[in-house]
Design goal:
- There is one protein chain.
- The strands form three sheets. Strands 7-14-13-8-12-9-11-10 form an eight-stranded mixed sheet, with helices on both faces.
- By secondary structure, it is α/β, with parallel strands linked by helices.
- Helix content is 57%, strand content 10%.
């Protein structure tokens, strides 16, 4: 046990034991394969009965720059398509309006499954283009390919031809709709421009007419911006007024002189007249130049000097004019009056000219305002007229800003159900079903599956693993009858079945070591675990090996060994313990192997306490001197109390554990019961191990080969 425990302790636990997983699947391969087959069959049936769906795919690209044959942009710059614009085109392509156009193009309003219900509808159901458009929208998918300017349109339908036609119709409706929308927008633009041009034309004619009318009404036909003619007239009248004022002043002076009697001959003297005329001209020039240049001008100063000289000359000549004053006084007065009247006349003309000039200037301001308004209207009219001409020239040249880069494909292979997808899904489901089946079967198993499992769980070594003969390829024995299995052991002692019992004898050292146990009790936790079969086979194996062997049937209730080996029993263990018969009379020989048997006799009242009595212990001590090996076939240790007492008397106790059947809790309870009576449990024996799946048992059968002798 020490070596076994050391080996067990040296094995490190693994988080993931691939071999154990493989063992589990191999162990339950039949139900797993059945579950996998069922799932795969259901997947195939589901695939075959699925309604086929076909998907037609078309690809559209959006132009990065929106160029027209006729550039109607006022700035002459092309419009660039950005990323949000492409996303907008995706929404336009999947819009109800585009779907409605495609449905109208294909006449889907009257087609069942589109504009009409799938079954044709009732009499009250009317064709609906909206229903058809909604169907197209529900079965189509529009996606943008990454960050590119390409758009993918997919339409799915039961009919591949219909899917192809509808995809083409949607693309045509989208591209044609863009052209149609642009054409309608262009027509609306032209109509608007035509109405606006008409109104602007009327406004321009009215403005120009107002300019002409105002110019005519204000007599501004010959007057330009600077009013040169009126200014020239004012200049002439100013000169005339200055001359007239000079002459009037001279006449007034003469008249005054005449009234004062100071009229002299100078008045009629040519010299005086000449001087006066010179002075008058200089005065007129002086007044004219004073208005222009000012009194500091050199010409003004020169004239003043000349006037001073003339005045001096007149003063000199005036002294000589003292005669004829009376004769010319009346003439001088009349001349002065006439000169004054002339001055008044010229002054009136001058005032009139100044008024006309002022009125002309005011009229020019108003005229300029009217002309500006007319010019503004003219420019606006020209701009609208140019835009109208461009729009008219561009009408009919509209085109979509998207183009087809991949025509709608005619689907041949259905997009749903997808054979690869269904196949992969079926495989995954089958694997899941197989895994769940393995988990379910594994969870339902209560027993141990290998030596390691027993040793790890119970800290007890496994002496041997006895195969289930029905699972051995070299035999057709399929019964669990103890005698038939024991007979098979004798018929083929070199089989793996026989080797397992020889390994028990070898492990215990029976017949080889001086301190080897002579009394070996075979017990089990529960019934039907192969205990009796193991006892008989172990006894026959030991007898064939030349060991003096005795098997004692200690099971008072069932007497399995006695019923299997003997037909008529005269005396049994109970008789010996009661003193009613000697042990020599009760022991019989198994003729097939030469082993001796101390049976149980049926009938009579049963005394269950005899098996655990001192008499039993005394009997065993006596028999040890007669036999090399005494096998005690006891009842199950959990339900039968006397089995514990018998086990406590044995030199060695072997606990039979049926492979994958005996619950762990039952084995633990049996070990606790044996330990409570200080039984010497040397180990466990796994019985009825299925060696067809040798990897399950984890035993030496994985490496077993028949080793025949040579004659």
């Amino acid at each position: 046990m020490t070596g076994q425990n050391t080996a067990s302790e040296s094995s490190q636990p693994k988080l993931f034991d691939a071999r154990e997983i493989v063992v589990i699947f191999v162990r339950h391969k039949r139900p797993i394969l059945i579950a996998v087959a069922i799932v795969l069959a259901l997947t195939a049936i589901l695939y075959l009965f699925q309604e086929k769906q076909f998907t037609s795919v078309a690809r559209i690209a959006v132009e990065r720059q929106n160029t027209d044959l006729v550039d109607t942009n006022s700035g002459g710059r092309e419009l660039t398509t950005d990323s949000p614009s492409v996303d907008t085109e995706v929404h336009i392509l999947e819009s109800p309006e585009v779907m409605r156009r495609a449905a109208e193009e294909l006449g889907l309003a009257n087609k069942p499954g589109y504009g009409l219900p799938e079954d044709g509808g009732d009499e009250d159901d009317e064709p609906s283009i909206e229903r058809a458009a909604n169907t197209l929208s529900a079965n189509s998918e529009v996606t943008r390919e990454g960050e590119s300017y390409a758009i993918t349109l997919e339409y799915t339908d039961n009919d591949p031809e219909m899917a192809h036609k509808i995809t083409q119709a949607i693309v045509a409706a989208y591209i044609g709709g863009q052209q149609s929308d642009k054409g309608e927008q262009r027509t609306e633009e032209i109509d608007f421009l035509a109405d606006r041009i008409k109104n602007l034309k009327e406004e321009l004619l009215a403005a120009e007419t107002e300019v002409a009318r105002y110019r005519a009404s204000t007599n501004l036909v010959d007057i330009k911006g600077d009013s040169t003619a009126a200014q020239q007239e004012l200049s002439v009248l100013g000169t005339q007024l200055a001359n007239a004022q000079a002459e009037a002043a001279a006449a007034q002076a003469r008249a005054e002189a005449a009234r004062q009697g100071a009229i002299s001959n100078v008045v009629t003297s040519p010299v005086v007249n000449q001087l006066r005329e010179q002075r008058a001209r200089l005065l007129a020039q002086q007044q004219s130049l004073m208005a222009r240049y000012g009194e500091k001008h050199p010409t003004i100063i020169n004239i003043e000097n000349q006037l001073d000289a003339i005045n001096r000359s007149l003063a000199a000549e005036q002294a000589n004019l003292n005669s004829e004053r009376a004769n010319i006084q009346a003439a001088v007065v009349a001349e002065a009056r006439a000169a004054q009247n002339r001055v008044q006349s010229i002054r009136g003309s001058l005032n009139r000219a100044e008024g006309e000039l002022m009125a002309g200037n005011n009229a020019s301001v108003r005229l300029a305002e009217l002309e500006r308004e007319a010019e503004s209207t003219r420019q606006l009219y020209q701009a609208f007229l140019d835009r109208y001409r461009l729009a008219s020239a561009a009408q009919g040249t509209e085109r979509s800003n998207a183009y087809v880069i991949a025509e709608a494909s005619l689907p041949i292979v259905p997009s749903f159900p997808s054979l690869p997808a269904f196949g992969l899904g079926g495989l995954l489901a089958a694997l899941l079903a197989g895994t769940l089946t393995a988990i379910g079967f594994e969870a339902n198993e209560k027993g141990f599956r290998s030596r390691r499992a027993v040793e790890d769980a119970l800290d007890v070594r496994v002496i041997a693993a006895i195969p289930d003969v029905a699972t051995m390829s070299e035999t057709q024995v399929a019964t669990e009858a103890p005698l038939e299995l024991a007979n098979y052991l004798l018929e083929d002692p070199e089989s793996v079945f026989g080797e397992s019992f020889r390994s028990i004898i070898t492990a215990l050292g029976i017949g080889m070591a001086p301190n080897a146990p002579k009394t070996v009790a075979l017990t089990s936790s529960l019934a039907s675990e192969g205990k009796t079969t193991s006892s008989i086979c172990l006894a026959r194996t030991a007898a064939n090996m030349g060991l003096r062997t005795l098997i004692i049937d200690c099971d008072v209730r069932r007497r399995a060994v006695s019923r299997a080996l003997l037909e008529n029993i005269e005396y049994g263990l109970r008789d010996v313990l009661n003193g009613e018969a000697s042990v020599e009379n009760a022991i019989v020989m198994d003729p097939a192997s030469g082993a001796h048997v101390l049976p149980q006799r049926g009938g009579g009242s049963l005394n269950y306490s005899l098996a655990g009595s001192p008499a039993m212990e005394k009997l065993l001590n006596h028999l040890k001197s007669l036999y090399d090996l005494i096998i005690l076939d006891t009842a199950p240790v959990i339900p039968v109390a006397e089995s514990r007492a018998i086990s406590a008397m044995a030199d060695s106790v072997l606990l039979i554990v049926r492979w994958r059947k005996t619950p762990t809790s039952a084995v633990e309870l049996a070990l606790d019961a044996l330990n409570s009576v200080d039984a010497n449990v040397d180990g466990c024996i796994l019985s009825l191990v299925d060696i067809r799946d040798r990897s399950e048992s984890g035993s030496e059968y994985l490496y077993y080969e028949r080793y025949d002798s040579v004659d």
